[in-house]
Amino acid sequence: MAMQRRDFLRTTLAGAGALVFARNFSPAEDAAFDSRIEILLDETLGNISPNIYGHFTEHLGGVIYDGIWVGRNSKVRNVDGIRADLIEQMKRIHAPIVRYPGGCFADSYDWRDGIGPAAQRPTRTNFWVGAEPKDGPDKHRYEPNEFGTNEFVHFCKLIGAQPYLAANLRSLPAEEFYRWVEYCNSPAGSTTLAHVRAEAGYADPFAVRFWGVGNEAWGCGGNFTAAEYAVEFRRFTAWVPGYGQNLSFVASGPNGDDRDWTREFFTEIVRKGQDQLRGIYGWALHHYAWNLSRGRTQDWEKGKGDALQFDPVDWYELLREGERVEDMINGHWEVMGQIDRDRRVKLIVDEWGPWYKPGSAATPSDLLEQTPTLRDAVFSGMTLDCFNRHPDQVAMANCAQLVNCLNSLFLAHEDKFVVTPVGHVFAMYAGHQGGQSVRTVFSAPSITYDRDGKPASFWGLKGSASLRGKSLLLTAVNPHVSQAREAAIVVRGASVKSATVTLLTDPDIHAHNTFAERARLAPTSKELPIGPLLAVKLPPASVAALQLELA
Ligand code: AHR
After folding, report:
1. Is 323 a pocket residue for ligand 1 (Cβ < 6 Å)?
2. What is the pLDDT of residues 58-78, one digit of tens each?
3. How far, in Å, is the centroid of ligand 1 from the Cα of 166?
4. Does 369 sit in the ligand 1 pocket, CB within 6 Å?
């Protein structure tokens, strides 16, 4: 066995890295490892935008009402009506940015309904009414507008995050978009809308920089062709006053991986000249890993798997689906680059996560709520590592959705609140925000497994690393359902003074936290011995964060 491991390392480590390994480990020591992680400090990839650790909240099911907003008179611990547990946890993970109010809801929403005195706010039919479970609370079907722009921006202030507002391009005119910007950003005392804002207790401008101009314009955002949407985008974003704020507009990207949509949009945008690209900060990609049918169907309902009941083959299938985001990033970036030669426009993955069939909700009446397991933690770690490795392309990403929904960090109902494994991953990875991404080389045996009678494979170890001064954060996932990896760590260009590893894992790949068992899955930390070698054991089905202090 030891022989095979050594052989494996010799073959996979051919090239420049092998020399480094040979310098650090004797043959006897090399037999102790089956994997290697090499960190190339002098190969920097770019600065990791804190905003790739962003979140997404929509007026959908229990996300806003119950998840975030409990109301000022609630018995649930709150700050100005906002769930206190959530505020505390969002501060813990250093949440940088939150997208709101949708999703599909955004293109049905009149922002004016959500401002002004609470008693005067209208009740409207929620976009999601048709999908709501029969026993869903009224507030989820008929939008009471208790929570609107003021409350959302206040939530962002309380947690220290920036707001990212998604404007309605399908059902409101461009003028209403300008007015929403005016309401948020015009200086105290300057406009009628600034007075309305001040009457609500917010004299100072909200200074909202990020604006999504529609959402999924190919579908619920207007059913446009890419060229039609490009014309609308140009019109909506032409000469919007910023009020001293450098407005950053995000355009709605493709349905899944549809590269033709990207090509058609950019082709149409520059029909008025290359300068038009200056008006686009970001190009939105959405990636949901939903089809676990292993190629049997493309049907949106039939293709989904179960969040809690799954076999190892479903575990790998989800990760394979998640892995596609890297291809999307590279593919759309390449298409954009054919037109955006100066690389003005960045990628914004403003919805991502697994999407399972209904049935695993902690609060069964919450639409689209699912219970994340260890599988979703590995998925999330893997996805965040991918974003970290693309710092020059990905400027923002928003996990869908923050609470009581798809890949939620938190589940909440009345006075119950729990951090999911996904929430723990965000805490473990928070130190990457703003760090300098450095190139890593992971070498590990590939995983082979049976996929409907045919052999399939998946990579054995992957991750990312970032540097801040002398502190190096290395994160990685071991996706193997039953085998640990013994990894040697080589930091090229520095020696390591101290190392701590934090692990999230469990012998049961289905492990998850519930209201009754809130800490079934929680990270544990320990120091690693520093000797001539640095090594770590990565248990099966684990997410790891290693904090290394360099000399
Ligand atoms: O996150 C749920 C929905 O998924 C969003 O509203 C929409 O943008 C996407 O299709």
Report:
1. no
2. 999 999 999 999 999 999 999
3. 12
4. no
Residue type, 417: F
pLDDT band for 11, please (50, 70, 90 cuts): very low
Q: Which of 58, 182, 216, 326 is catalytic?
A: 216
SS (H, E, C) 488-534: EEEEECCCEEEEEEEEECCCCCCCECCCCCCCCCCCEEEEECCCCCC
Distance 104 CA to ligand 1 centre (A): 6
User: How many other CB atoms sit within 10 Å of the CB of residue 395?
Assistant: 22
β-pair partners for 525 = 502
Q: Give the rounded distance of the alpha carbon of 148 from its chain centre.
A: 23
CB 463 within 8 A of CB 383: no
The 8-class DSSP code of residue 105 comes to G
pTM over 0.90: yes
Is-contact 103 138, C-beta < 8 A?
Answer: no
Strand (E) or helix (H) holding 43: strand 35-47
pLDDT reading at 45 higher than 60: yes
> How many whole angstroms from 223 Cα to the centroid of ligand 1?
14
Q: Does 95 have pLDDT greater than 80?
A: yes
- Report which of 454, 502, 486, 481 is spatially closest to residue 319, judged by C-alpha positions: 481
Integer Cα distance of 90 and 225 in angstroms:
37
User: Is residue 264 annotated as part of the catalytic site, yes or no?
Assistant: no
- CB of 284 closer than 6 A to ligand 1? no
